[in-house]
Amino acid sequence: MRRTWIVLAFVTGLVAACSGSAATGVPQATGTQAGAAQTAIGATDKPTAGVPQTLDACSLITASEAAAVLGKPVDPGAAPEPGAHSCIFVDSAKATDSAEISITSVADFKPTQKSIAGVTITQVPGIGDDAYYVSLGAGMVVLNVRKDQTTFTTAVILKGASDSQLMDAEKTLAISVLGRI
To answer: Which DSSP category does 9 fall into?
Structure first.
């Protein structure tokens, strides 16, 4: 579980650090998880279009959905640390495989950033209002999605899976999440 959190934090930090202002080339300050909403509402509540929505990450993916993409049973989802805007579902038998949803700051959502050495940004049409993958290769892929003013990431770690299998699993989870926000 800790590995998933570390990988997600690393990828998010790396992507944010690599983006900058097109006008000045100066790195922009990144938002924090605090930019995501602080109070939880049910996943069935619908916001007014364009207004950021407050969500509980663990209400957006079910354990059965996480188990389906991992191909094995998982423990109930849990925040990696108190106050986190993430929920991790871990393989019950071995803690190396997991699925994660994180509510992110819209300020950190940068679908037009360019790929750099070692980090590939790939646009994903047809998911939410906008979506893109950030890939470091070797099983480290994160799908970033925006719907109105709500942004989130899905990440799957599955030993032995190809990047394309991970991308498919993350897309499946994202589609489930979009049906709840």
So the answer is: H
Instruction: List pLDDT tens digits, range 50-77.
Output: 444 578 999 999 999 999 999 999 999 9
Strand-pairing partners, residue 156, are 99
Domain boundaries, the chain: 2-17+45-178
Give the predicted TM-score (pTM) of the model.
Answer: 0.72
The bridge status of strand 130-137 relative to strand 140-147 is antiparallel
Q: What's the token pair of residue 19? A: 């983006």
Please state which of the four CATH numbers 3.40.1000, 2.20.28, 3.30.160, 2.30.30 is assigned to the domain occupying 2-17+45-178: 3.40.1000
* C-alpha gyration radius of the chain: 15
